[in-house]
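Ticket opened by: R.M.
Priority: normal
Category: complex prediction / small molecule

The reporter submitted a protein together with S-adenosylmethionine and asked that the result be attached to this ticket for the collaborator who will pick it up next week. Submitted input follows.
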Amino acid sequence: MEEERSESRKQARVAMLELANMISVPMSLNAVIRLNVADAIWQGGSNAPLSASQILTRVLPSGVGDPENLQRILRMLSSHGVFAEHLNGSERTYSLTDVGKTLVTDSEGLSYAPYVLQHHQDALIRAWPLVHEAVLDPSTEPFVKVNGEPAYVYYRKKPEMNGLMQKAMSGVSVPFIKAVLEGYDGFEGVERLVDVGGSGGDCLRMILLKYPNIRQGINFDLPEVVAKAPQIPGVTHVGGDMLESIPGGDAIFMKWVLTTWTDDECKLIMQNCNKALPEGGKLIACEPVLPKETDDSHKTRAILGEDIFVMTMYRTKGKQRTEEEFRQLGLSSGFRNFRAVYIDYFHVLEFRK
Ligand SMILES: C[S@@+](CC[C@H](N)C(=O)[O-])C[C@H]1O[C@@H](n2cnc3c(N)ncnc32)[C@H](O)[C@@H]1O
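Result attached by the on-call engineer:
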């Protein structure tokens, strides 16, 4: 019995050291993205295992660089499932796992890499040591405390951050929308669709391609964001503030938006959606949905991780929500019916007026 207790205490100490050193994981991910390691290994799909020196020869034109230090990074990320390590005698080579492949740039120039980089911008990194301040003083977001203004106001003034944000959103949204178009048919019969907080308009572009019944797409986002959005056939970009008013349509789409706002702000945004819809019209919101009970699955950890990100960067009271919390928000904003369709990280939440 005493032996068992001592063994579990040893494991607990090791587990705490693992948690304390977790910061090495995102920072090393950041490093392999900056060094373009995933594309170097992928090479059009060959994914042949390469040593750190071979990778360096591919990513650095001069071929200089420290292979030993790169190998340390690759090895650590292999223990987190990003790379597969192949040991041959004393030689180590690395290929990409399915997780690592999400960092490979696809034929449309997209991947999950900009999302990782966007999360590690200086302005965001500086806010992280102040997470405890969200507990002590929830009146001001840690991001605001260190940068002097809210994140979206800050991004607005930095074209490179706006650009990275748009690429980050596209990289994650495009594969998700492909899954939505396979698993959800709620766009049938819609003629005018508004995407609220639509960023560069990727979601609308894909929805319109599948549903020619949608004759008009309105991509609604902050003026600075739509000013940078590309021309998309059938899509009109409209700049504005969703907290004030939202352009009219017979359906409204919204993805990854409610999470960043407080309950009161969500209510205001959803009431603005309600006003912009005809009787029977629907709001189609895609958001992560928090399970009621906490578990240690990748999905729950990803959602809870983003919950702390939102609390630190956007709103101390912005948050991830359960299905029941979304249902209640809909009811209190004037929607009569609600249904949820599970897709992957995100669910489709359909609110009908
Ligand atoms: C997390 S991003 C989601 C982007 C896109 N829907 C997607 O999933 O790829 C949130 C979007 O809301 C926009 N946004 C933030 N505040 C806004 C406001 N007050 N009015 C309109 N759009 C806003 C941001 O510019 C950003 O494009």
